[in-house]
Amino acid sequence: MTTRTTTTTTTRRTRIGEFTYPWLLTLGVVLLMTVGSTESAKGSCRAAKRCCDGQDGDCLIQSSIENPYQTSEQDEDIQEPCYCDHGCLDMGDCCPDFKDYCGVIDCQVSEWSTWSKCDVSCGEGTASRTRDVERPESNGGSQCPVLEERKRCHANKCHPKHNQVEKSSAFRETAMILPGKYAVQSMRGGRKYEVRANLKSFLDKPKSKKYCVVFKVEKATHTCQNDKETDPLRTGHTVCAVCDDKAQRDNLGGRCMGHGIEGRPTKFKNLIHPRCHGRWTKVETRDECPCPNGPDFVFV
User: Fold this and answer.
1) Residue-range domains of the chain with CATH
2) Residues 149-165: pLDDT tens digits?
């Protein structure tokens, strides 16, 4: 073995000048075939120079180059086809360079804008935000996503503290009230689970800001003193009534019915004891009730 190897080496060395350039040329061809077969093995629309419209089963790319240096496992990989038709986007069997070579462009959009102002100045309305199409889809690319979103909003420029109340209407109204403990229960009750909130189209209703009205009792029936819950309704006493979001009415500008007019006596009536009623005068409106024990009553 040693002698054959030596002889062989000597022979190649003595004839290297004769075979150097043809040998290098042959090596280059083999390398090109190997690279080409590797690209074909992966499936290339560019190598096959094919791009087909729609869903075309004949637009199949499969290696036709035989490489003697491939193993049996690699041969199996070569036989795995891919497609260069636009239907491959739906089928999920596109060749790796399909989008690049065949000019498939997905829709590209900008970032969301800031939310717009509420489209009403009083009560419930809608705010929106948008984004723009920077590059539309082409040649079967992904379509553009939603370009506008909306959500509910609440405007309170008609809030009573802004003095935008229709006084003639408020003067005729009667305040329907309950004991203040019901306002405490409503605040502690928490928020119930809303299954529709999982839907993209669901617009959550924001809670309106509650406020408190301070009244001076001008006159009350004797029935009011028969129950400790209505006993504060005595002539000359100051009481607080809270207006929470459940009692606020959009048709009244987001206020409670019967919340009164400053300096003018208006009517009230207790719903638990209907014979407990009378007149009181609105003193002021505050965000929180200033009475020592919190709200004495709650609007209904």
Assistant:
1) 2-101 (no CATH), 108-156 (2.20.100.10), 164-299 (no CATH)
2) 998 887 766 645 444 44
